[in-house]
Structure formats: C-alpha cells, structure tokens
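re: that chain from earlier
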Amino acid sequence: MISMGVGRSSDRQVYEDALDDARRAERLGFEAFWFAEHHFNGDFCMSPSPNLLVAAAVRETERIKLGVAVNVLPMHHPVRLAEEGAMLDQLSNGRFMWGIGRGIVGREFLPFGIDSTNARARFNEIHDTVINAWASGRIECHGRFFDFDGVDLHPNVLQRPHPPVWVAAQSPESVAWCARHDYIAMQVGEPIEQTRRHAERYRRAADEAGVTIREGGIVPLRYCFVAESDEIAREKCAPYLREFWHHFTRIASPGGGIPDRSGYEYWYEEGDLSRYATDDYELLNQQGIIICGSPETVIGHLQRQAAAVGTDRFLLDFWRGSLQREDRIKSLELFGTEVLPALRGAPITAAA
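^ sequence. v structure.
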C-alpha cells in the first residue's frame, strides 16, 4: 500500500521509489499493490492520480494485482472512470482492482467545488453508473448530478462482470452498504476492537439483506515496519510513526473549513481518529493501528488481529515506517522473506 509523502529527495524520486516497490513486492510474493489518492498535501501523499501510477506499474510488473485505494468518486466524472478503469483492466491483463471512497478530508473537496453534504449521494450515483457501464458495455446516467444518454464503452473490462471492488468504508452505513454488495470494506486506522465491531456489522447487514459473502468482508489497513528485533524496530520507526500518526489524525476528518457535518456525523463522534492520537508506541501496537517489530512479533500481531476480526487479508502501508528509504526497503524485504512464508501456512492467506 503506497500513499507517498515525506521522506523523499525529490518529487520525481517519490514515483521512482513507488514503482521500485511495486517490482519488489511482486518478486517477494505479495498479492497486490495499491496506490492512494489525495490532494494538496505533499507531506501526506504525492498521488493525486492513482490511475496514472497503476498504468505505469503495469509496465513494470507481470503478475501482481494493481489497485487504486481509492478513486475518490465525488471528485470524478463517471464516464472518465468507466473508460480509464476498463483501459487499466485491459492493460494489466485483468490485474486491476477498483478501490473507491467518498472522501473524508474536507479541505480536498473545496477546490473541486464539491459540497461535502452531497458526497454520499454523488458516490452512489457514480458507482452505479460505472458498474452498469462495465456490465452492459454502455455508459448512461439520468441522475441528480449527471444526465446523459447512453454511449458505447470502448474498451470494456476484461474481468467479468467487473474488476474486484474495494471500498474505504469507515462508518456503519458504509460498512452495511459494502455488505449488501459483497464488497471488501477497507478500514483505515481504527483499533482492533473498533474493526471487530465493524466486522460484526458487516456480517449482520449481509444476513439481513440475504447476501452470501463470497468476495467481501472487512480488511484493515495497518502501518507496518519489520526489523531484525523489536528493539531495532522501535529505534528506527517509533519517532516517525508517532509523528505521522498525529499528522494523519489531524487531516483525516471532514473539517477544513466545511462547517456542515451532514453525512459525516460518524467521523465527529465514534469515528474521530484524534481520540487515538497517542505518543505511546507500545499502545499503538497493542491497539493494532501499527504492526511493528521483529518478524516473529509481526507474525503474532497479524495472527491476533486476523482471529479477532475474522479476516484473512490485510492492507499494509510500509511507506510510513521510516524516513530512510533503506530502512523501508529492508522492512519490505524482511516481511517478504520472513513473514509471508509463515503466513501462507496460517489462516491468513494474503497480504497486500
């Protein structure tokens, strides 16, 4: 999982490092490689267009799945998303994974002229239009935000009926929506107990809707760093991870000049990540927000969370482990050579 930000020597080097990591992740046996979308904050993320990065990574890899995590749907036109997603699926020979979200960072909406109170309604309309286009080969919408007659989609997707859909779903309403569609619900930055409650909500919503879960479920995103020992891991990554976590909890809210909380009540109440903005490295590990330590410690953390949440998949962000590129490379290599082989014989079947 790459959401590229601080610790770079130049903007161009960020992209070179990301593509190098994609090649490395494929060689090490990771299941998938993801690119985030964020805007106007170079300290947090240098990826305003994850679709462009997927297209670049397609030419650098052969087997690993490539995903966007996520296309922030309210900021996009459904025609462009349907066409680009189909192109990426064809270019990757069916390795494309479509991650979507409605956006949580209020200050990102403003320059796009998006009313955040309409974000969920725009998300639903755009999602429905793109999925219907991929299934039918025709792009058409007569909705609240977009109104156009049908046109043929060229090219169409390679995967049928459409590429796998992953959703950034934090609120109970979003989790239930994912369950009704049998989509993966990605959980970003919430502690184990909160993630476990979301997993229960997901299963309950699927039961109520009569949906048999085949592809979906809850998948947590964790910030990961692996070193030869717990002591070295703490020395290398604790100061930087604490700093990043404080930065993330400040910006990951629908605030930033948007006074109306409509549609984001969960974020201001139960989901407010600033409640977990601690300087306690051990507590962050205990809560499961970060997974850091020796290979043995990291294996134990993953197995504990998998059992608590009922998942066999994790999204792991290795970019935040250290300011030093060489430390991040070593962490990714240790995970691939020491952790992944141990997980293949355990209930955890994949790490992305």
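The mean pLDDT is 90.
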